[in-house]
Amino acid sequence: MSKTRIAILGGGSAALATAFELTRTPELRARHDIDLYQIGWRLGGKCASSRNRAARGRNEEHGLHVLGGFYHNVFDQLHPLYAEWAGVSPATAIPADKAFRGHNTFTLMQPDGDGWRAMCVELPTNDLVPGLNPEPVTPAEILGRIVEWLGVGLRKLASGDPPALWLRAVEDWDAPAPSQHLDALADRGEALTSDLAAHQAGQRHLPPIGDLLDRIGAHALDVQSAMQSIGEDAPPKGPDWIGVLELIATITRGFAVDGLAERGFDVINDVDAVAWLRRHGGSDRAVTCPLLQAGYHYSFGFVDGDWRLPDIAAGVGMRGLLRMVFGYHGSVFMHMVGGMGEVVIAPYYEVLRARGVRFHFFHRIEALVPGADGRLAEVRMRVQANPIGGSDAYRPLIDHLPEEGARPRRAWPEAPLYEQLADADAARAGGCLEKWLDSAGFGAPKSLLADRDFDLCVAAMSIGTLRETAAPLAEVSPTWKTMLDSAGVTPTIAAQIWRGEPSDTFHGVREDGLMTGYVAPHDTWGDMSFLTTLEQCDGTGQRPASLSYLCGPITAAVGPARSGRADLETEAWLADYATHIFPGLADCDGAYRQAGELERYARINDDPIDLYVCSPAGSIDKRIRPEESGFDNLFLAGDWTRNNFDCGAVETAVLSAKLCARAICGEPAVIYGESDLA
Predict the structure, then answer these.
(1) pLDDT in tens, 247-291
(2) Please, are residues 302 and 355 in contact by the beta-carbon 8 Å criterion?
(3) Are the CB atoms for 311 and 271 separated by under 8 Å?
(4) Sign of the C-alpha dihedral computed for residues 458, 460, 464 and 465 taken in this order
(5) What do you get for the CA distance between the two ends of the chain, in Å?
(6) Which of 642, 637, 651 is nearest to 15 (CA)?
(7) What is the rounded CA–CA span in Å between residue 325 and residue 280?
(8) Which residue from 663, 509, 491, 497 is spatially nearest to 579, judged by alpha carbons?
(9) Which of 71, 104, 225, 444 is most buried per CB count within 10 Å?
(10) H helix or E strand, kind and range, residue 568
(11) Angle between helices 209-230 and 139-158 (to 10 degrees)
């Protein structure tokens, strides 16, 4: 039997995950013949990273990448991927137990008058493993948990204790006076928790679920009223526990009134998350709670990068926030011990190549052209460079050694390996070959034709690139036009700063290792100092003592204004805002202390290839599912597709890839998170 020829367009997480599923077993490999086409010299898309050979082999990222312990589709692939990688590249593959480390503490910043208040969160570790046997986190189960939260929080509040839940306790907290009303609310919350558990267990003697939801909605309304009556000035310091409880009560009321336990989250995607909470009585205090606002910052959820214009579809926002809290295994976050390109992307490349996937680097996709027969007829592209030995002969990885005698690790270089190119001089003159804007017009035309070069095609490029390349599809398909016009994207900024002093001298929020919700454009910070041991020493035999990652949304610039902007924006942010969260970085005059900074790498991701996928209200139902392109031989994969997570994340890309693969070959049969209700 002849194999099905599949052309995968793009080299990011969705493209690699699709290829992984289509070749997961020997039987599938016998059915599929796969060619993957990627612009430039490296894979990964927004997850790409490189080792700079001219700068101590330091790692340079697109931004701060942290996997979630609830990324079960990602880890479902990473477990077998790492096992296979160890056999494919035994001398350089990273041991699986040294590739990731859990992280459970973070700081959420909240405006407080002219200053800022920090809320410290510490989620408990559990004994589960991400990706192994995850249980579905349905809205019904979530409703039970948040009703239980209210009961626990109210009981602690009534006794005079901070209703810590999983928030870190604070000293000198001025609790409200003991209240029989709060005790009564706690009693009612505990009773409702028991009734919900009984309903989920299938006990038939209880009233209909609609009656129970009415009682829950009324209870949540009473809790909202009680929290609002306590007053805006309580507590005067530390986390705003009252605002937290009101936020949880407002979410609970929204669940009950809108019937999310039975209808799923998608029914509220027409409205922004804050607007949805206000619809259900949330006060200013509730909707500005950092537990909610962190979701906007975590997902770059601002219109065109403007921090004054937050916008996340309520269903997407609630699903993501609550899966993160209730669905994680092990730790809520998982740091990669190394660059994302070498910890995640390199193993995909080496394993897939060993499985027979052919990688064609230096191919810039130009247009997807439909035919008169309802199929994709042609893929137009430009060949940017010609590897010696043929189109799929380029070998993109280098061996990185942190120090003499260390175990080498496979990494991506910061520039093409020109010695492998037959036309190296021309390639050097072609601009930045991995950027859509910089590489425009360069290279020789080439076309892939249906039936001659491929039987099926998977469009797995970024949505920013698809807006350019899929215009011919939009001309004949209103569905495509609507999707491309409504898709939310935002530019981002990222910086990495190496300093000579350890991060514990920064003081402030550094003890939690992660911070978000602060001032744009660098509203998020991560202490990545543990990565400095993977870099080489400088000329004096020393390494930096600390490494900070900064990132956030930023508005776009055009023309000459783009040049040098990343450094200028970062410099201004450090001067204006760094010392508030890091008082240890202030000099004797209170200004940011430039002395001690050894190296800095900053970038703005405003090329169409690099734009971050957002989820604005009203856009989700306009997305296209992986199997519903409208063209018989075209399938889709990416975090911009409709897939029931519907936000910018590696987990979304892999979920979409699994849906794409199943549409092509029938596997995998079971996909975590593809539905809210099962």
Answers:
(1) 999 999 999 999 999 999 999 999 999 999 999 999 999 999 999
(2) no
(3) no
(4) negative
(5) 37
(6) 637
(7) 22
(8) 509
(9) 71
(10) helix 565-581
(11) 40
